[in-house]
Amino acid sequence: MAGIREPFLPVPGFSWLGKNIGIKDESPDFAVALAEVPCPAAAVFTRNNFPGAPVVVGREHLADGQLQAIVVNSKNANTATGAGGIADARRSCELLAASLDIAPGLVLPSSTGVIGVPLPMAILEAACRDAAPGLAPTREGLEAFARAIMTTDTRPKGISIEVGGATITGVAKGSGMIEPQMATMLAYFFTDAEIARQDLQEMLGRVVNHSFNRISVDTDTSTSDTVVVMANGLAGAVNAGKLEQALMEAATYLAKEIARDGEGATKLIELKVCEAPGAEAALAIAKAIINSPLVKTAIYGADPNWGRFVMAVGKVFDHPVPLEGLRIEFGPEDAGLGISASDQADGTLDRIADYLRSSEIEIRVRLGQGDFEQTVWGCDLTEGYVKINAEYTT
Amino acid sequence: MAGIREPFLPVPGFSWLGKNIGIKDESPDFAVALAEVPCPAAAVFTRNNFPGAPVVVGREHLADGQLQAIVVNSKNANTATGAGGIADARRSCELLAASLDIAPGLVLPSSTGVIGVPLPMAILEAACRDAAPGLAPTREGLEAFARAIMTTDTRPKGISIEVGGATITGVAKGSGMIEPQMATMLAYFFTDAEIARQDLQEMLGRVVNHSFNRISVDTDTSTSDTVVVMANGLAGAVNAGKLEQALMEAATYLAKEIARDGEGATKLIELKVCEAPGAEAALAIAKAIINSPLVKTAIYGADPNWGRFVMAVGKVFDHPVPLEGLRIEFGPEDAGLGISASDQADGTLDRIADYLRSSEIEIRVRLGQGDFEQTVWGCDLTEGYVKINAEYTT
Fold first, then answer.
1. Partners of B230 in the beta sheet?
2. How many secondary structure helices (H) and strands (E) does chain A include?
3. Among candidate residues A195, A186, A196, A262, the one with its CA nearest the CA of residue A228
4. Distance from the B323 Cα atom to the nearest Cα atom in chain A, whole angstroms
5. Distances from the Cα of B248 to the Cαs of A363, B168, B200, B226, in angstroms?
6. Which of A292, A389, A391, A392 to mutate to test the interface with B (most CBs of B within 10 A)?
7. How far apart are CA B26 and CA B29, in angstroms?
8. Which of B251, B262, B207 lies closest to B378 in space, CA to CA?
């Protein structure tokens, strides 16, 4: 695999902008990405039954597998806003397309923020009309894009990977309303690799299923979640397997960054359920643990309360596990730090407590039942999560 | 329906004790209830796949539908403790039975507290041996029992209801690891009504399904949950319908008290999902909302963020709801305080914010699809929940 180069490497043939237009306050809230040419593109959207208006319009515009631009606003999700919201999303695409001299159907809109409040269209319209001159094919432009899509994120998230002669750069946002039922935040990938649109869609589906669909911050599935990839083809074809590997690596990196930056989080948790009788059982148990508020608060408090893992494994009624085979391990495999009903060496709880003070926590739950394993990522639950969400107001 | 009389009315033919024996600290941690005669009894236990040792032993002892005594300790759940834990639970029953001069199979054991730590049997054995003289058929004895079963509860919970010439008194504990998949805490009902054991079991099943199974604090299903009813028959037969109504009323009262006293909670939430196309859809949507951390934190912060209700309704993928018919109402029905995508009168958000400052929140979610409705209860999510559970240590 090619090395990870840096967070925000611009990809030839793309330009970006990100800035404040005053939707809510003075933080950046408006972003545009533009490709020089229409690109094969693929996307995965939220499964929430009330998708935001931009998701509805984005699905339409992606129907032909082509995109040339993306327009994003943060601070307002344009969701549960009815026919007016759909019209607003279309209008943004039309105005941006006119400014860029492209077809409106080549623009994908995204909005993220509060639900149920109409977009302030006067300022959005002006921003779309004036977008063209601000676009830059630079690191600064890309990073500004990544900053402008943030909501409660504490930092912009980006990753660039070389693959053959091409580059993949991904940027993402999302730190609350995150549950891996499907892509659960905004993530945009830009590459100059050449790839057919159908291959790109299938590749993205596989990648999302093993990256963004494996993270959880708070079990809530957003109405706006979108993962998009645009491939402008300027670098020519690259090995498809290597491209998928690079996309998987970039997506996994960003997914973990989203979990690490979960609202109020102080720790990234990587949880592997192994020795499961099947993949479905492994994933169901992994999700029960990573979503358990009692497990999450114990990890926050560095409390070696392994009984809470037992409880979480046991509440997956459809997949009973014999207690005799259940073992919870903390830290790298060679650390040998584990606990079970029949093996609780002196000092183990103290060693687990010490380990849980790290900012990156690795846990393996062995079921003793088979060979299947699944990995998921999450974060601890802190007073910060409550504070952010009790105060994140309309 | 007979009136609710008071929290802790002793029932003729029962006696109780509750005291500290030093399992963890100086708070009460040991409780016994005794009936004068063997009683028809019924119970509902946790569905968690790792039930505590007392649940395993309790199921055996209940197999013949008879009980005469209950022994409870708090501060330690005797769960994930293997064969030794089962032996400890049996030993407690034997010693208590010897002290009371009854058969060990007439004793139901319960333990609640930390998981995965062996019981301190030396002090429990002494307490069981010495139990008989401490029992009292009084209000004080009953209230001491209710206090000794508490863990993170902030107050004892009890309710007494007259039915015909009989009395039902229920006491309960439980404020974390609460999710209504099945009885999810400890609750004990004592009555002097006469009723056949089979009728009692069926009645309890129906009652639990509409009371304790409808509350949620944190989506986690405890390994120790137990609801027991003992009917000593001293008051003779009463109308079965009225008895069930009284038991339902008592159970619903205690279920709401558990939600109200949820860990860190400042508000009781009563949520009704109505106009649903079926009972299952109504309940699935109600649970998605009452369990949503974003809804719970918004209510804590009195944030009129109705979009989070939309999100939670929409994440029940199997039961899509048209946005046009969805309406969220706050407060009593005659207050007329509602919001929807097409109806957002000026000042509505401010009025909702004002209402959300109450300590008891009533919410109706109308789906506009049919005639089914379901009610569930929960509580807000606060920094206090995180604090309690990050610090509640082994």
1. B41, B190
2. 11, 15
3. A186
4. 7
5. 43, 11, 12, 16
6. A389
7. 8
8. B262
* Angstrom distance (rounded) from CA A339 to CA A306: 8
CB-facing half-sphere around the CA of A82: CA atoms within 13 A: 11
Measured distance CA(A261)–CA(A190) in Å, rounded: 22
Buried b (16+ CB within 10 A) or exposed e, B127-161: bbeebbebbeeebebbbbbbbbbbbbbeebbbbbb
What gap in Å lies between CA A64 and CA B306, rounded to an integer?
A: 35
Ordered alpha helix ranges (H), B211-343: 240-260, 279-290, 293-300, 307-314
- Read off the amino acid at residue A144: A
Instruction: Return per-residue pLDDT of chain B as tens, 394 residues.
Output: 455 678 899 999 999 999 999 999 999 999 999 999 999 999 888 777 788 899 999 999 999 999 999 999 998 989 888 899 999 999 999 999 999 999 999 999 999 888 888 999 999 999 999 999 999 999 999 999 999 998 878 889 888 988 888 999 988 887 655 543 323 478 889 999 999 999 999 999 899 888 888 887 655 566 677 888 999 999 999 999 999 999 998 889 888 888 888 888 899 999 999 999 999 999 999 988 998 888 999 999 999 988 889 888 988 888 989 888 999 999 999 988 999 988 888 899 999 999 999 999 999 999 999 999 999 999 998 888 888 878 755 4
Q: Using one digit for the tens of pLDDT, what is the confidence trace for B205-227?
A: 899 888 888 887 655 566 677 88
Catalytic residue among A46, A81, A184, A191: A184
**Residue A79, CB-side half-sphere exposure with 13 Å CA sphere:** 31
d(CA A367, CA A148): 43
Q: Does B56 touch chain A (CB under 8 A)?
A: no
Question: pTM higher than 0.80 for the full model?
Answer: no
CA angle A25, A215, A354 (to 5 degrees): 100
Q: Tell me whether residues B317 and A383 touch, CB distance under 8 A.
A: no
- Please report the pLDDT score of residue A394 as a whole number: 46
